[in-house]
Design brief:
The complex is a heterodimer of chains A (about 190) and B (about 425). Chain A is mostly helical and about 190 residues long. Chain A has helices spanning about 1-15, 30-40, 55-65, 70, 100-105, 110-120, 130-145; strands at about 55, 155. Chain A has a two-stranded antiparallel sheet. The longest helix of chain A has 14 residues, at about 130-145. Chain A starts with a helix and ends in a 33-residue tail after the last strand. In chain B, a hairpin with a 5-residue loop joins strand 4 and strand 5. Chain B folds into three domains: about 1-65, no CATH class; about 105-275, Alpha-Beta Complex (Sulfite Oxidase, Chain A, domain 2), CATH 3.90.420; about 290-420, Immunoglobulin-like. The chains are: A mainly alpha (about 190), B alpha+beta (about 425).
């Protein structure tokens, strides 16, 4: 450790610009602002990178009418774009079987926020403000019976929402090179 | 010289006139809808190969017309006019490498392809690292590089009785020679911290398409690629920068790469979300491509022009490493024999194979199966069904990535059909 940071320091001194990579002396350290501007990832469980903001389903319904209804339909069930509301199924149906729908299948609520923030609305991606994304997330969670209509979703409350499929998804294997895809499966 | 050129032009014009009514030369296996060789129409203007433009940058013959086609269940173009998955014409491919302009592609949001000035493009590496770093394209090209053959295959390549051609059944796999920096090299420069067991890779396109990958894979063989088949990446393949994740599901090979973040867990982000599974075996088998092969000639939609000798050709590959063996059958899997592997198999790369076959005019079912260097064997659909204890006759879908054997039935009239029932 010590010797590699020493090498880094030497290379820094030796190179003309702000070379930062310790072995090859290439690249530079980004500014905090550069990282902030690009880092739109959201930790699925803790929501660590969620920006401050707030919105309710009531507010979301107004935004939805303006931004979403043209493709997803008035109530999220009848548009040309994918359905946003769980299917009607008999009592006791496992929540996994209520449809391959973002706000039902997601094990964690911040995943819904991330998806809307990145991917919606079609052809105007990245134009929603954080508050609008919180409000639309709240609307989808309300429509799917997960939260109340007045319940504000914020960077603090969203990670606390208990999603119906939280424990239903299978973790991915601990991948290592040269191993079969699945122990006991010869194919 | 001048008269030579005139003669050649005159010849080309005569050729075009002939082509109106006749097939010139033609492939060994007769031209069909799915074939890549057909005569140019008379109205089509013939290229002038001595023009400054074509002297500067070449062009294929007007007699070679192989093109990609939209494929896969989703309507394409869909209700919003977007085209999602474009299959490569494997039946026309000669050898193991797919020409860049025919490489399959899929995009997260239709056929949207960003136009990126490489002089402005940067790659950020941050998250759980000792040193956050940002690189220009020029920086990246100064690093020690690797050049490797790798296939990329989409999870959408699945067997079905509905498929008519190999473009529909297998068109979303292609193989290219990729050049770039190993991601390991860059991550070692940044210094991955304890607990940084996953990375997320993000593109610059409109949805900032992002995938989660295990750091173990990143430290093994992921390439941050800027070169493809001897030239910069094509825009549909991620110009100016992408990752190539050898052997993993295609969507994980993020294009137009702008950012790598080292994180503590699977992030379930944009490209991951649709791939969550309930069943652990399904999740594991959906991740990495199994041992797989397919006969490309003859294949569905083609017609054998007559009895006699054919070199049957195909491709084999595996996400688990090198192809070590390819077997073939011409009697629907009752008997098998070794096919010839052409060239030296590379890890996670298409490997061409062939075998000699004399068709006697009776019905035949052609199949191939491959074994990879870690001993995984390509199964029939029946073997997969039996492994999971699914009763015969019940409709089922192969668990995880579908690597099942593709049978092609040659009928007495020479026509070739998908034999999956």
């Amino acid at each position: 450790m010590r010797s590699s940071s020493l090498l880094a320091a030497l290379l820094l001194l030796a190179s003309p610009a702000l070379a930062q990579s310790p072995t090859f002396g290439l690249g530079r350290a980004p500014s905090a602002e550069e990282v902030r501007a690009w880092d739109i990832s959201i930790h699925p469980i803790t929501g660590a990178e969620l920006p401050p903001g707030s919105g309710t389903a009531v507010e979301g319904a107004l935004i939805y009418r303006r931004q979403c209804a043209r493709c997803h339909g008035g109530d999220g069930t009848e548009g040309r774009a994918p359905r946003l509301v769980k299917q009607d199924r008999p009592e006791g149906t496992h929540p996994w079987n209520l449809g391959r729908i973002l706000p039902i299948r997601s094990p964690y609520a911040p995943v819904v926020w991330d998806y809307i923030n990145r991917g919606m609305p079609l052809n105007r991606e990245g134009t929603l403000t954080p508050d609008e994304v919180y409000a639309l997330t709240a609307l989808l969670l309300y429509w799917n019976g997960i939260i109340g209509e007045e319940e504000p979703m914020t960077h603090l409350t969203l990670p606390l929402v208990e999603m119906p499929n939280r424990d239903a998804w299978a973790p991915l294997p601990d991948w290592q090179p040269g191993q079969p895809r699945w122990q006991g499966y010869p194919y | 010289m001048a008269s030579d050129r005139t003669d050649r032009r005159a010849f080309l014009k005569r050729g075009a006139a002939l082509a109106g009514g006749l097939t010139l030369g033609g492939p060994v296996i007769g031209p069909t809808e799915a074939s890549g060789q057909s005569a140019p129409s008379q109205s089509q203007e013939l290229p002038d190969y001595s023009s400054p433009e074509l002297v500067a940058y070449g062009q294929r013959s007007p007699y070679v017309t192989s093109v990609r086609e939209p494929v896969n269940g989703r309507d394409s173009p869909d209700d919003f006019g977007l085209v999602f998955h474009i299959g490569t014409p494997l039946q026309d491919q000669i050898g193991a490498i797919t020409p860049s302009s025919l490489h399959y592609f899929g995009t997260t949001r239709g056929s949207f392809v960003p136009i990126i000035d490489p002089a402005e493009h940067k790659l950020l590496i941050h998250g759980m690292v000792d040193r956050e770093l940002i690189f220009t394209m020029d920086d990246l090209k100064r690093f020690p590089s690797v050049t490797r053959l790798h296939f990329i295959e989409c999870a959408g390549n699945r067997s079905s009785p509905r498929h008519r051609t190999i473009v529909e059944s297998h068109g979303m796999t292609s193989c290219a020679e990729w050049t770039g920096v190993l991601l390991r090299t860059l991550l070692e420069e940044a210094g991955v911290q304890q607990g940084g067991d996953w990375i997320i890779a993000e593109g610059v396109e409109e949805v900032k398409g992002t995938s989660s990958l295990p750091t173990a894979k990143a430290m093994d063989d992921i390439i941050v690629a800027y070169g493809m088949n001897g030239e910069p990446l094509r825009p549909q393949q991620g110009f100016p920068l992408r990752i190539v994740v050898p052997g993993f599901e295609g969507i994980l090979s993020v294009k137009w790469l702008r950012r790598i973040k080292v994180v503590d867990q699977f992030y379930m982000t944009y490209n991951d979300y649709g791939h969550l599974r309930r069943d652990a075996a399904d999740a594991a088998l959906s991740y990495q491509i199994g041992p797989k092969s397919v006969i490309t000639n003859p294949s569905g939609g083609q017609t054998l022009p007559g009895t006699g000798f054919y070199e049957v050709r195909g491709l084999a590959w595996s996400g688990g490493g090198r192809v070590s063996r390819v077997e073939a059958s011409v009697d629907g899997g009752r008997t098998w024999f070794d096919a010839d592997i052409r060239g030296t198999p590379q890890p996670m790369a298409h490997t061409a194979f062939s075998f000699n076959w004399t068709w006697d005019g009776s019905e035949a079912v052609l199949m191939s199966r491959t074994t990879d260097e870690i001993g995984q064997v390509q199964p029939t659909r029946d073997q997969v069904r039996e492994h999971w204890g699914i009763p015969a006759g019940q409709p089922f879908s192969v668990t995880g990535q579908d690597n099942s054997i593709q049978p092609w039935r040659v009928e007495r009239d020479g026509s070739v059909h998908n034999a999956i029932v």
